[in-house]
Amino acid sequence: MTLYDIVxxxxxxxxxxxxxxxxxxxxxxxxxxxxxxxxIRSYYQxxxxxxxxxxxxxxxxxxIGIAAGFDKNGEITKSLIxxxxxxxxxxxxxxxxxxxxSKPRLFxxxxxxxxxxxxxxxxxxxxxxxxxxxxxxxxxxPISVNIGKMNQSGPEDAIKDYVKVFETLxxxxxxxxxxxxxxxxxxxxxxxxxxxxxxVFGALQxxxxxxxxxxxxxxxxxxxKEKLANxxxxxxxxxxxxxxxxxxxxxxxxxSQLKSKHGQEWGGVSGRxxxxxxxxxxxxxxxxxxxxxxxxxxxxxxESAYKKIRHGAxxxxxxxxxxxxxxxxxxxxxxxxxxxxxxxxxASIEEVVGIDCKEL
Length: 360
Known about the structure:
Layout: H1 3-11, H2 16-31, H3 34-44, E1 53-55, E2 58-60, E3 64-71, H4 77-82, E4 87-93, E5 106-109, E6 114-117, H5 126-136, E7 143-147, H6 155-169, E8 175-179, H7 194-206, E9 214-218, H8 225-240, E10 245-248, E11 268-271, H9 275-288, E12 293-296, H10 302-310, E13 313-318, H11 320-325, H12 329-344
Helix pairs in contact: 5-6, 6-7, 7-8, 10-12
């Protein structure tokens, strides 16, 4: 039993957003003192050669990262790396501050070990994030920025939104992630159509003066031949525009198997209910492209991370698992991955990427 197992019932009595703010404040305190940070790193970080991963023109100390949404405004990036994560994704960042949907808009699903969110890109805006990233200094692991549009922006304004965030933050992250698949923002138009993606990617690459890697985040809900065909076309468009990776996946709109009290609240579902869908999407994408895949959805253990990697993910991200398992999760997963690699006779995590994928 960890300390978090003891205090989690107290956190879970608070509204989810309040609990998240409390957790962030605790991490900020930890980051305020170098002595405390050193102790945190010595306890949580595992630097093992078998876990290093080269991807997106960077070297990752391990393949376990924190997903977009957890550190929306770049407030606790260094603290998350201190906890043993091999990379962190800030955002989704929009050009200007916006409130998102009205509260309540984040719901725990304890019986399902999941969450529903309809936050809709709430955040402090690109300039505030820039200020934090300027003062952040060197970070001991790759950092990305997930960029999105203002909720009410139409097609033309949306491209300007993406470009503004891209240019405002360009010098800071190791790579960018374009978020065109969020299910809980207003559906002004279809952001993820191949035609639309081509316009967005083209506009960003025109401004990409140093060829910084760009990834695109896709959704998990490909339950028809038509949707699968659109995914294949989207990947072709990504390849044509020199996109460097696919992030799979965003949250799902499928609430059909949820058992928890708030299971029918509208919004995107994350955590355990998303795990299989996300893994299936990772495997599908791995079979369609040579681009690396970043797997997201339902990862909360070494075994679930290992499964994602063996089905095609070069890197894996966590959000909801952190909420349920606490700050020691990255250490638990990285330690477990080393044990799993040794058990299966592999010298490196890179050796097992896609090893369980079926041929298409």
